[in-house]
Amino acid sequence: MLLQIRNHPGIIVSTLLMIALLVWGFWPKPLLVESAMAKVAPLTMTIEEEGRTRIIDPYIISAPVNGVTCRQHLKVGDSVEQGQTLLSITPLASQALDPRSRAQAQAQVSVAKSALQVAQEKAQAASVAAQLANTDLKRYQPLLEKGLISQGVFDTASTQAQSLSATKRSANFAVEVARHELESARTTLEYSKESFADQSIERVAVRSPITGQILKVERSCEGPVTTGEALLEVGDPKSLEIEVDVLSADAVKIKPGMKVFFDRWGGTLSLDGRVRVIEPIGFTKISALGVEEQRVLIISDFTSPAEQWQRLGDGYRVEASFVLWHEEDVLQVPASSLFRYNNGWALFVIEDNHAKRRKVTIGQRNGLQAQILQGITAGELIINHPSEAVEDNISIEQRVE
Predict the structure, then answer these.
(1) Measured CA distances, 53 to 135, 243, 299, 386 (Å)
(2) Are residues 285 and 368 in the same domain?
(3) What is the pLDDT of residue 197?
(4) What confidence tens digit (pLDDT) does each residue in 334-343 have?
(5) Closest Cα partner for 47 from 256, 257, 241, 259?
(6) pLDDT by residue (tens digit) across 141-167?
(7) Residue 246: which domain range?
């Protein structure tokens, strides 16, 4: 058997080649991994949300009286000065009287005339009676001094004179009331829509409370308005603030005076700002995924020079980043290199082309980077995005990009 094999060296070579291929195929190969380096660099913790600008003190100009507005010639964006007349309001025109109403108004005028005549006659009678009582009182005065009449008779005459004088004054007032009622009846008859349109009308001027620009025109055509109806909105675009609605869980981490950056507003540079107010009341908002969220408005002011954000206006979109924590020299690694291990955190360090599992203590995390407080030093290579195939002391090979 051995002699036959020796006589066929090809069999020996084939067998050795097959054994070598099997050993090479089953020999453990280094695992390809992505590497990263622990480094010292600035680290910032932020809360990022979308917000929008708004004018700090917008003024909604409403109609002060019932009436008819003139046609509005001001447009959105027009500049206005404080005290400038924006529009005017004329009183509502009187209704035209139909034949029946006109006949009733004429009858009311006749009734008022008769009532005035009655009042005048009563006033004349009261005046005559009062004059007679005063004459009798003057005649009784010398008789009382001579003792020809008693004191009681004189007091009765005095009381009668005072009573009739009061009746005279009351009758005169009744005449004035009747005269005003007659004037009111004549006004109802005379001031119809046709006659009133030809007379000069006093108009109420609506003026701008501030120097700024027109932000909104509620109505531009002529027409009737009621008291309190919105007509225009005026504001100063140079006085802007930013409102950002954040989750209530994030709002408790934000404090007044905290620094904030505004990006993606249309300019090339980030704008600086500072938190001014955290509103004490939240509201419910439906997210894009249909989930109800409790959110809170955060109001911030620009601290960058006004020249940098003059192109912004009311209602412009910005992306706000609230700075919760920041340090310049922080030992950090990619957050994707960490994994949970024995109720703590760990990562794989690359040593001599082998993966060495090492427990670490982490600090702040911003989603991309994590602060390392203990466990590794700056400059060490670590495995980023370790898969389940990576184990302690396994042979690895760094992926070259």
Answers:
(1) 87, 6, 10, 43
(2) no
(3) 47
(4) 999 999 998 8
(5) 259
(6) 777 777 777 777 777 777 877 777 878
(7) 47-55+237-327
Would residue 345 count as lying in a domain? yes
Amino acid, single-letter form, for residue 269: L
**CA neighbours within 13 Å on the CB side: how many for 121?**
5
3-state secondary structure of 152: helix
Amino acid letter for position 172? N
Q: What is the DSSP string of 362-387?
A: EEEE-SSEEEEEES--TT-EEEES--
Do 171 and 148 sit in the same domain of this protein? yes
Q: How far apart are CA 315 and CA 305, in angstroms?
A: 20
Give CA–CA dist 208/204, Å, rounded: 13
Q: Which DSSP helix (H) or strand (E) runs through 177?
A: helix 151-190
Tokens 């309190």 locate to: 228
Handedness of CA 80, 82, 83, 89 (dihedral sign): positive
Q: Mean per-residue pLDDT for 346-364?
A: 92
Same domain, 85 and 219: yes
β-pairing verdict for 230-235 and 59-62: antiparallel
- The tokens 């006749």 sit on which residue? 110
